């Protein structure tokens, strides 16, 4: 099963959208699934406030893991991660029009009324679509990171 499929299955299994993305891919970068679930728990539902979509924040955390190492404490060392994050956000926005949870869903899931409306409208299917979309975008970015990392190792060995 691909990481993309794992992300969708995690979401279907009642994980938050942010947890689904980080939980599926995090083990590639040294996080256990449990650690990923704990780190990403507060980011679902637009950080619990229907703000930035949880799949976006989950992807941002994942991109940081993929593009940075323990020496990423400088702006220069974070530049590749920031570029990849900008690419992710631009593509997600192109596909879905926004990065904001309440705008994606058409209701504010942080309120009791909005949560009920989301349930009545079956909006978890839309969230599943966003999980799959984010995973597709991330797959391409992670391939780019692996290619870049391999090229960098090759140059340092020359």
Short description:
The chain has 158 residues and is an all-alpha fold. The protein is 75% helix and 0% strand.
Unreliable sequence segments? 153-158
Instruction: Give the CA-based shape.
Output: globular
Question: What is the element string, with H for helices and E for strands?
Answer: HHHHHHHHH
> Roughly what percent helix?
over 70%
Task: Classify the beta-strand content into a percent band.
Answer: under 5%
The number of distinct β-strands equals: 0
Tell me, rounded to a whole number, the average pLDDT: 92
Number of domains: 1
Structural class from helices and strands?
mainly alpha
**Helical segment tally?**
9
The radius of gyration is: 16 Å
Sheet bearing the most strands, described?
Answer: none
First and last CA, distance = 37 Å
Notes on the protein architecture:
With 158 residues, this protein is mainly α. It has one domain. It is built from 9 helices and no strands. It is globular and about 50 Å long.
């Amino acid at each position: 099963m691909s990481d993309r499929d794992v992300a969708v299955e995690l979401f279907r299994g009642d994980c938050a959208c942010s947890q689904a993305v980080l939980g599926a891919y995090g083990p590639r970068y040294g996080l256990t699934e449990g650690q990923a679930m704990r780190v990403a728990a507060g980011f679902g539902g637009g950080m619990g406030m229907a703000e930035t979509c949880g799949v976006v924040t989950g992807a941002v955390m994942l991109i940081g893991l993929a593009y940075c190492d323990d020496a990423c404490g400088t702006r220069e060392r974070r530049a590749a991660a920031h570029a990849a994050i900008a690419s992710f956000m631009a593509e997600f926005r192109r596909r879905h029009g926004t990065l904001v949870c309440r705008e994606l869903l058409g209701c504010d899931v942080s309120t009791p009324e909005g949560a009920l409306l989301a349930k009545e409208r079956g909006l978890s299917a839309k969230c599943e679509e966003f999980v799959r979309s984010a995973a597709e975008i991330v797959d391409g970015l992670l391939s780019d990171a692996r290619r870049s990392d391999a090229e960098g190792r090759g140059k340092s060995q020359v």
